[in-house]
Design a protein that fits this description.
The chain has a single domain, classed as SGNH hydrolase (Rossmann fold, 3-Layer(aba) Sandwich). It is built from eight helices and seven strands; from the N terminus they run αββααβαβαβααββα. The chain has a five-stranded parallel β-sheet, sandwiched between helices. Strands 6-7 form a two-stranded antiparallel ribbon. The longest helix is centred in the first third of the chain and has 22 residues. The relative contact order is 0.14. The N terminus is likely disordered.
Length: 254
């Protein structure tokens, strides 16, 4: 009797171990790295409802086939992400078949900060090209991503302001010149925001009334950074482009 019970216990332990093994991705599973600035970065619960668009991107993918590594960092530009060494740790971990989504531009325009500022046609293009070249040298697949728009409107309240300068245009041209896949979130967020209008778009950004969130007791009015709802909508735009352009990783989407 005891021996029978032992067999039963052993069987169920074995089944549990096998289930865990099947759920855990193998070391050579494809990885999708996202590098960029605060609009794509992940945040701890004490910053909620602040959410980067890549923070919950894993939810759209089968984790046994693809792992999303959100390596975007708040406040970084194409220049500072490299010069601070953040790119080194990502690049060194790349393997053949991995993907790198590259989104910079917001902080590159910070003329007052020489550690971050880049000129669109020269230094910005050079840094963005370096990401592409480095990824390809490791056998990874780079994807250039234009920056998302801010919640800033022209006087007619129907048209978004052109608040990102020449950076999106340079990214598009670089993608064309280097034959790199482009996910144009600048264009897609422009279309989405203008379809919603100024008031509804506020619900996608970090606009909080006083007392609405314990993490922001005095409230918040932020036209650049997203809250959960906004991050989901932008992530959906990225996923839709992955499907539309028939990228190989589209086969890993749930």
């Amino acid at each position: 009797m005891l021996r029978s019970i032992g067999y039963v216990v052993t069987f169920f332990l074995f089944q549990a171990l096998m289930a865990n093994a099947q759920q855990s991705p193998s070391p050579d599973v494809t990885r999708l790295y996202v590098i960029g600035d605060s609009t794509a970065a992940s945040y701890t619960p004490d910053r909620a409802p602040l959410t980067g668009w890549a923070q919950d991107l894993q939810e759209y993918f089968d984790a046994t086939k693809l792992i999303v590594e959100d390596k975007a960092r708040s406040g970084r530009s194409s220049k500072s992400f490299i010069e601070e060494g953040a790119w080194d740790s990502v690049r060194d971990g790349l393997k053949k078949g991995d993907y790198v989504f590259i989104q910079f531009g917001h902080n590159d325009a910070t003329k007052a900060d020489p550690k971050r500022f880049t000129e669109p046609e020269t230094t910005y293009r050079e840094f963005m090209k370096r990401y592409v070249d480095d990824a390809r040298a490791k056998g990874a697949i780079p994807v250039l991503v234009t920056s998302i728009n801010r919640n800033q409107w022209a006087d007619d309240s129907r048209t978004l302001k052109e608040g990102l300068g020449e950076y999106p245009a340079v990214t598009r041209k670089l993608a064309e010149d280097m034959r790199v896949t482009l996910i144009d979130l600048e264009m897609k967020t422009r279309e989405l925001f203008q379809s919603l209008g100024p008031e509804k778009v506020k619900g996608l950004f970090l606009y909080l009334k006083k007392g609405e969130s314990p993490n922001y007791p005095e409230g918040k009015e932020d036209s650049t950074h997203l809250r959960e709802a906004g991050a989901r909508e932008v992530a959906k735009l990225a996923v839709a482009e992955i499907r539309k352009q028939n990228l190989p990783i589209a086969g890993y989407l749930k």
